[in-house]
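Quick start: read one record
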Amino acid sequence: MENEERLNNLKKQIFYEFLDIAGRVMVLVKYSPNVVIGNRGFIGEEKESGIILVFNPKMTFTWDEYGISASLVFGAAPQKCFIPAGSIEAVYSAELNAQFVAAVHERQTARDLAGSETGNKCTATGAENSTKTAKEADKKIISVDFVHKKKLNKDENE
């Protein structure tokens, strides 16, 4: 539990550093029944891939030991939102070309499978399960190519 709490504090520190330096920060929130996104909730593919929320210093929000509480606008209607810190998978800034990814649940599953082996022996089934879980976790890693996007925007302006 202590590691999860420390990781959530690290997410918070990075969030505020990105916000202070760049003036905008994006957060990837994975689906969880504990996440509240007003009446809207998660729609379509968001339950599988998560939702990206954008924050800037002009917005009213608080991040306490439980997570982020904010009023976010979707379309024209403001929605009361709560994002538990444990549901935040990534914090990133396009302006800084920087990201912090913390997909803890996938890593814990892989570690739990590896730790459930008896003694120091690794059975074939356990190794396959551990490898499958690691490959599934790799699919969830976000790769953001901010540089490429900037080049496209520059080319469009020419």
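The first helix runs from residue 2 to 22.
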